[in-house]
Predict the structure.
Amino acid sequence: MAFRTLDDMGDVRGKRVLVREDLNVPMADGVVTDDTRMRATIPTITELADAGAIVLVLAHFGRPKGPSAELSLSHIVPAYSAVLGRPVRYVDWEGDAAAVAALAPGDIAVLENTRFFGGEETNDPAVVARFAALGDLYVNDAFSAAHRAHASTEGLAHALPAFAGRAMEAELTALDKALGRPEHPVAAVVGGAKVSTKLAVLEHLVAQVDRLIIGGGMANTFLAARGVDVGKSLCEHDLVGTANAIFDAADKAGCTIHLPYDVVVARELRANPPTRTVNVHEVAADEMILDIGPAAVEALADVLKNCRTLVWNGPLGAFETPPFDTATVALARTAAALTHDGSLVSVAGGGDTVAALNQAGVADDFTFVSTAGGAFLEWMEGRELPGVAALSN
Ligand code: ADP
Ligand code: MG
């Protein structure tokens, strides 16, 4: 898809630029505990400030119902200033027009929580106009909020000349490479706990990819559909019909579905319990499948070796509990090595997936890792994201 970026903004000196960022950082006792999202904003904010723009950052924080002292973005300003390495001003929703008028080229200000306006989430034209009056130009740099049609994520793109920020641009470029116009063969890994949470993802992927690798708890439902007795494993027996429909759709689309043929089982889900590695047909009635087995991992590594593109969401096992992270870590390292060799474009996303890749120490070796949970999944479902659509030419 085509969209305008900072390169298309022309001279921004003295222009007021409203920049939608994701500053919804985790906090404990008034301290920012993870500044990943703040760091992602650095390229766009510093580039605009250095070009002499008056940079007005728009963001939401938490889920306030109207103004709330606790959910004021003022609390994050000191940490944000430290991350950017520059002064950051804070502008609340009273007297904001005057405060903005007093800013000079190169200044950076964080405006108060957009969700203090009820109309933010309903994309109320009055709130869009309220925000638009503060700026001359609009930049959306928050892919993670782009699945929502809110005033600051969608409405503003129609009210002011709109551009994608650097983080948004990087995300859209990577996602386009992975599923938009990928090099084939394309493999998808879909894991995680439940089929029911990723049904739309699976249905979309069978029509898009050449190889669909199913792992994690959701593989159990597919194994059950194939007549395997999965014992006490997490399994959605009521979705066996749905799993069969996905097998049929894959057949029609020429997509090969890969399920494990060996698995790691245990009687309880806790750290380092007694385990067995068995063929899927040998799971005992009182056992749970908690990871895919080594033979399956080896076969899947061969699949990846023959693919040019990989998109990955969901761990292959209960990775939080050792040793059930073994398969996820092993396959992630294979994908990282193939990416490093230049034979694979690898894109991954999802909250637990990112945690698992960090655990494997390979997050930096993938072509792109998306930290946008909900938006990434909606993109994997093939849905148009309103915040992205509003930026397209
Ligand atoms: P993401 O956040 O990346 O989208 P999910 O939330 O869908 O991923 O899935 C992650 C969860 O799936 C983890 O909590 C993991 O423990 C769980 N899981 C994976 N495999 C199994 C399994 N075989 N049995 C039970 N839970 C599993
Ligand atoms: Mg999750």
Notes: Residues 6-168 form a domain with the Rossmann fold fold (CATH 3.40.50.1260). Residues 351-352 surround magnesium ion (ligand 2) (CB under 6 Å). The radius of gyration is 23 Å. The mean pLDDT is 96.
